[in-house]
Amino acid sequence: MTGTARIIATLAVFAAMLVLMVLRPRRWSEAWWTMLAAAAMLVLGLVTPHEALGAVLAGKNTLLFLVSLLALSLLIGKSGFFDWAAIRCALVAKGDAHSLYRNAFVAGAAITAILSLDTTAVMLTPVMLALVKRLRVPGAPYVLLCAFVANVGSLLLPISNLTNLLFADAFRQTFAAFAARMLVPQLVALVTTYAVLRWHFRRELPASFDSKSLPLPASVVPNRPYFLICVSALAAVLVCYFLAPLVGLEPYVFAFAASAVLAVAGMASGRVQIRFVQEIAWDLFPFVIGLFIAVQGLENLGIVDVSAGWLAEMRPGSAGKLLAAAGATAFASNITNNLPAALIARSVLLRSHAHMGTVLAALIGANVGPMITPFGSLATMLVLAFARRDGEEVGAGQLVMLGLWAVPVILVLTTLALALTFVVVR
Fold first, then answer.
1. 338-351 and 319-336 are packed helices; what angle lies between their axes, rounded to 10 degrees?
2. Buried-exposed string 56-77: b where 16+ CB fall within 10 A, e elsewhere
3. DSSP bridge partners of 208
């Protein structure tokens, strides 16, 4: 195959994959389209089997952590934790609808940080939508809250986002080092996002709501001992993530251990049956593996070398370079989805031996940036899908109009906060 034909074939396969991921013909999972794209890359000789295997093996720690997090989130959900948290948010608000919105945002940010953005999208969103229906408050502000907080709130820990896992593993960042660098940017991102959403929905959010229809939090906890074990296990595993380097173990070992404990406790209490493994979102794995291989096809075109050369020409660690890196991945994420954008950015940054500030700025772009288009991140797509299913239709135009002005503000302030941390602590 000639050079021109190779370029055309690679771009055509990749573009077709993206379109089919968004349209989902016959409601087929996104995993079908990434795997078919990977197969096409291999059949056409755009990626060799050796390169495909290498791309998958390079992400093995990420894949192992992903399965451990999915199992942990599912088991915690069996305890009624997410329903309990939503009702608590409403009760603490005491009939004040603005306080309810704030509480929901804080709960979403905490769940995203500790259990990942996919947990917020898949488990918290349906619960939150059911709550606002019960309270008879507008649903659209809460749909976009879940979408924004799932993405923007995923900067703090490596486990908060699959993109974080990819970067932390590739650049050998421990939990403690990663969290220390991202704490200030995460706080700035959350405060800015909340201010933006409150201002945007200032006319749609009512002043109050009727809290009389709310059940007691205890009523949604089917088995209190199992609930307490889940909360304790969650706290313990979070501490262990930070201690993992001291004992020479990968953090996912502790997530698997906590999942095993909760599975046993859940079966003993009758809350979990052995078939719970069928409920894990296994299609995420072929989805990610297919992306690894499809992105390898793009890398084979020389995109990484050109981009690495561009980065090398800029002054290391400068605010301008950090903003450029964040802007580039944000733009790419909205065009191609943030996972392929993050995978390409990771390769570019590794090839150019980028400063850690540039690495984390690119990650900010991949996490915060994808909120302009509905297909910018899988979490956004999931939130909007759950909203449609529950009758709370939020059009793509509404997301785009909000994202076009909100995302640049959040992105710039968050990236400047990151740059400041490197000025204070090098």
1. 140
2. bebbebbbbbbbbbbbbbbbbb
3. 96
240: number of Cβ within 10 Å: 18
Q: Give me the amino acid identity at 403.
A: G
Residues in a beta bridge with 96? 208
- The pTM assigned to this predicted structure is 0.89
Q: Please give the Cα distance from 73 to 79 (Å, whole number).
A: 10
Instruction: Tell me the per-residue pLDDT of 56-78, one tens digit each, with 9 for 90 and over.
Output: 888 888 888 888 888 999 999 99
The pair of three-digit structure tokens given for residue 318, joined into one six-digit string: 């400068």
Other CB atoms within 10 A of residue 342 CB: 28
Task: Kindly state the DSSP code that residue 114 receives in the 8-state scheme.
Answer: H
Task: For the beta carbon of residue 106, count every other beta carbon within 10 angstroms.
Answer: 16
Tell me the residue ranges of DSSP E strands in 164-223. none
Residues in the chain: 426
Tokens of 254: 């502790």
- Tell me the C-alpha distance between 108 and 127, whole Å: 11
Q: How far is CA 310 from the centre of its chain?
A: 28
Q: Do 36 and 245 contact (CB within 8 A), yes or no?
A: no
pLDDT digits (tens, 9 = 90+) for 88-135: 999 999 989 999 999 999 999 999 999 888 889 888 899 999 898 888
* Helix, strand and coil in the chain, % to nearest 5: 80, 0, 20
Residue 208, φ and ψ in degrees, nearest 5: -150, 170
**Residue 402: partners with Cβ closer than 8 Å, 6 or more residues away:** 144, 200
Distance CA 287, CA 284 (A): 5
